[in-house]
Amino acid sequence: MITLNLNGKDHALDVPEDMPLLWVIRDVAGYSGTKFGCGMGLCGACTVHIDGQATRACITPISLAVGKQVITLEALHADPVGQALQAAWLELGVAQCGYCQGGQLMTATALLRGNPNPDEAQIEAAMAGNLCRCGTYNRIRAAIQVAARKLREGQA
């Protein structure tokens, strides 16, 4: 048995230590916000936070998450930065198909928690590993800037 702290709750799980965290989250724990995209850590659809760091769940074995706090999209509403980003996403109509947006939001949240005032280059660098087949990159960057500004100004 492995104990995983997922979204603030401990889950006792009977899974192999090398099972990818993505499948533990989706198939065993039942959280569906974390998506399978490429299975190689290249697209970002599976991004979660492990101790606050944006991490690709599809290539991370559960053994690396034991004893750490794992946060998925389902808990993002409890984070003030996540709330500000979600509001900016809605305000600017970022999502089209929406498949990648969970990973985009998780990566953007980690960015703004570490750097509350990123410039264009820093946003571009942080978000570079997240792919969007619909091409909403300009709106994603704009939403990050809007959320950062509102957080700095105390409007979020």
From TrEMBL:
It holds the Pfam family Fer2_2. This is Ferredoxin:(2Fe-2S)-binding protein. It comes from Azotobacter chroococcum NCIMB 8003. CDD domains: fer2. The keyword Magnesium does not apply. Keywords: 2Fe-2S, Iron, Iron-sulfur, Metal-binding, Oxidoreductase. SUPFAM superfamilies: 2Fe-2S ferredoxin-like, CO dehydrogenase ISP C-domain like. Residues 1-76 form the 2Fe-2S ferredoxin-type domain. The keyword NAD does not apply. Gene3D superfamilies: 3.10.20.30, [2Fe-2S]-binding domain (1.10.150.120). InterPro entries: 2Fe-2S-bd (IPR002888), 2Fe-2S-bd_dom_sf (IPR036884), 2Fe-2S_ferredoxin-like_sf (IPR036010), 2Fe-2S_ferredoxin-type (IPR001041), 2Fe2S_fd_BS (IPR006058), Beta-grasp_dom_sf (IPR012675), Diverse_Oxidoreductases (IPR051452). GO terms for molecular function: 2 iron, 2 sulfur cluster binding; metal ion binding; oxidoreductase activity. Transmembrane segments: none annotated.
